[in-house]
Design a protein that fits this description.
It contains nine helices and no strands. It has helices spanning 8-23, 28-34, 36-61, 67-112, 117-131, 136-207, 212-282, 286-298, 308-336. Residues 1-6 and 208-216 have low confidence and may be disordered. The chain crosses the membrane at residues 197-230. Residues 167-201 form a coiled coil. This is Putative reovirus sigma C capsid domain protein.
Length: 339
């Protein structure tokens, strides 16, 4: 598919439309930015639901499936990371609010106040210094949110695979036990028939026990019957154990089905967490990019200051700074009130 190319006129119209919308904003943009704090509440609720669900699975089925303990512990680690990242984002929001204020009141104001070529050179230098300021903490926070999103996505895949693999293993165990039970039942049936024949032989030998041959036959028949009875007892005990094992496997299969159903119910919360984490990870990048753009534009010379497009970009940037700053301040304040 070919890339969509916007003309200079289209781009200028977009900037002017954005300026017009901000002129009639009445605080809506600041409110939208502060809504990120509401996302935090939603993600908190999602984490709480999944944490409770996994703990409930482990409490009910952990004895049968010890791996649930590992997954439960892993998820709690993600929840702890989320809490730590959110506190970091609060601190960075406060810092960015201050940066936006400085960007607007100092640097953008300096651009609009340029009168001479020396002023322009001075502003380029000032913008360069501002753009080089250490924002690694902000970039690190964004990467942490994105890494957490990736880790949780991987957790979802691995847990589902564990359910599938465990189900396959239990199905094979149930099949093997059923086959073993069928063979044992057939063997016991054969032994019962042999015991009947051995019993008849023993009775016949007992009737002829008055002779030496009869005594020998009686001993042989008795020994054969005893061996058959011992074998039947062993097979019966083995059958009983296999039947218990099969009942246990069937119970585990039912438990695994419950785990799958319960985990399927948690997927919407996990999806919400991942979508919001992506938004948290993308929110902090615009200031430095704008700074570098304005610096490069000013390098063109004094004619940049008479460029109507450049003037509109500066105007739009200044109109964006205040509501963005206000929104970030609200965000930081709301997170600061979290218990």
């Amino acid at each position: 598919m070919a890339a969509i190319v916007f003309s200079q006129e289209d781009s200028d119209q977009f900037i002017q439309a954005a300026i017009n919308e901000l002129d009639q904003d009445d605080g809506k943009l600041a409110n939208n930015v502060s809504k990120v704090a509401d996302w935090a509440v939603q993600v908190d609720e999602g984490f709480a639901n999944v944490t409770y669900g996994l703990q409930n699975m482990y409490d009910k089925h952990g004895e049968d499936f010890p791996d649930l303990g590992t997954y439960n512990k892993e998820w709690k680690g993600y929840k702890e990371q989320w809490t730590a990242h959110l506190l970091l984002s609060r601190n960075i929001a406060s810092k960015h609010a201050a940066d936006l204020h400085r960007f607007n009141q100092v640097f953008l104001s300096m651009i609009q106040d340029i009168q001479t070529d020396q002023d322009r050179e001075d502003v380029i230098a000032e913008l360069g210094e501002f753009a080089k300021e250490d924002h690694t903490e902000s970039a690190d926070m964004a990467q942490r949110f994105k890494a957490l999103k990736a880790d949780i996505g991987g957790f979802l895949v691995r847990f589902e695979q564990w359910i599938q693999d465990t189900g396959t293993k239990l199905k094979q165990e149930a099949y093997d036990l059923s086959q073993a039970i069928n063979k044992l039942e057939e063997k016991i049936k054969e032994l019962d028939e042999e015991i009947v024949m051995a019993t008849l032989a023993l009775l016949a030998s007992a009737a002829a026990a008055g002779t030496m041959i009869g005594v020998i036959e009686l001993i042989v028949a008795g020994t054969t019957l005893a061996a058959l009875l011992i074998s039947r007892i062993e097979k019966t005990l083995d059958l009983s154990q296999k039947q218990k094992d099969l009942a246990d496997v069937n119970r585990k299969q039912q438990a695994l089905a419950q785990i799958k159903t319960q985990f399927d119910g948690l997927k919407p919360d996990i999806a919400l967490i991942c979508s919001k984490l992506a938004l948290f990870g993308d929110i902090w990048a615009s200031i430095q990019g704008q700074t570098l753009h304005f610096q490069q534009t000013l390098r063109r010379g004094m004619e940049a200051l008479t460029d109507s497009r450049f003037k509109k970009e500066i105007e739009l940037a200044r109109k964006l700074c205040t509501p963005l700053r206000n929104g970030l301040e609200i965000y930081a304040t709301q997170l600061g009130s979290r218990s």
